[in-house]
Every structure is written in C-alpha cells, then in structure tokens.
Amino acid sequence: MSEHSLPVIVTLFLEDYVQTPNGLSKVFREAGLMNYWYPISQMPRNGQNWPLVQDMVVRNFRLLVFTSMESKEKSEGIAYQWNYVVENQYGNDGMIARSCVNREESSALNNKSKSLVLVNYFGSLPSKQLACVHNSQDLINILQTCHNAAGERWPNFVAVDFYKVNLNYT
Ligand SMILES: *[C@@H]1O[C@H](CO)[C@@H](O)[C@H](O)[C@H]1NC(C)=O
C-alpha cells in the first residue's frame, strides 16, 4: 500500500438478527476482516475522545462494527451500539421541525458519556422525489437542531435515503 493511498475507515451499524452463538464474529474472522477490527477494549468509554482518523489508520483500526444486540458485547466482543452512540428518532416521527429527540434505545442526545452522535433524517416510506427536499435545507435544519440537542455536538454519522439526491435550494 502506498503512503498516499486514501485511508478508508468503514463503520457498520448492524440491525442484528444473527442468533447463532459467535455466528457474526465467525463471518468477520473467516473473511479476514479481524485484521482491521477496532477492538472494544480500545473504544473510548465515558465520553472520552475518539482517536484521530490518522491514529486509527496507523493502528489499522479501520473497521468499526456495532451491533443492536446488547449481549454480544460480552459474548462476542462486538460493540453494542448504544453504549457508544446517541441517536435521534428515525422515520416520520424524527422529521418534526425544530425537534430532535433520542430514539428509544439511545441515551438522551446530550448525554456525553456516549462520544458518537448519529443523526437520522429519512421518512418511514422511502421516496426518491421527496429526498430532494429532505436532503437539502431540511437536512441542514435538522443537523443544526440536533447539534443543539446533543450538547453542541455535530453528528459523526448522518443517515438519509437516496444520499446522492439533493437539490441545493435555499
Ligand atoms: C448518561 O448515560 C449513562 C450511561 O448509560 C447513565 O449512567 C447516566 O445516568 C446518563 N446521564 C444522564 C444525565 O442521563
């Protein structure tokens, strides 16, 4: 790998329905992806800062995997998403102007013991037409609203539908 190659870091948020014990970790291991795995022992807890991208790349911590199953953090060493991330409501209920509240599984958005912030902004039913509106000024508005709700923190992750579709209107 050349020193000028683009550092890639991938984060997976798994809506996890894998019931087989160690089934998920087996897949990552057999695919050779443990070489890039960000170990939970190194993940910041209690509101500590995450390392710089540069430091993550140097240490080859380039794959972050989060599971929605709490038990897997202990049993398989896979990070339980809501131990590290706060997240607002998704779907239509999350698209109310000037409102940004946590989804049920998440701590309050301003709880800084979770260092990462994920903002959802997409309708309950995907609509390519509406994505033009949702992914433009509406999105800027929700990012500002959630920034305030999360204790002056910008999101690390933004979840939208049809991410390539936007209309730059103001
Ligand atoms: C923030 O989250 C932590 C860990 O889940 C919890 O113990 C604490 O009570 C929360 N703090 C507030 C202010 O809600």
TrEMBL record:
InterPro entries named among the record's database cross-references: PI-PLC_domain, PLC-like_Pdiesterase_TIM-brl
A family per Pfam: PI-PLC_cat
Gene Ontology biological process terms, A to Z: lipid metabolic process
Transmembrane intervals: none
Family matches, as SUPFAM superfamilies: PLC-like phosphodiesterases
GO molecular function: phosphoric diester hydrolase activity
Highest taxon of the lineage: Eukaryota
Protein's name in the database: PI-PLC X domain-containing protein 3
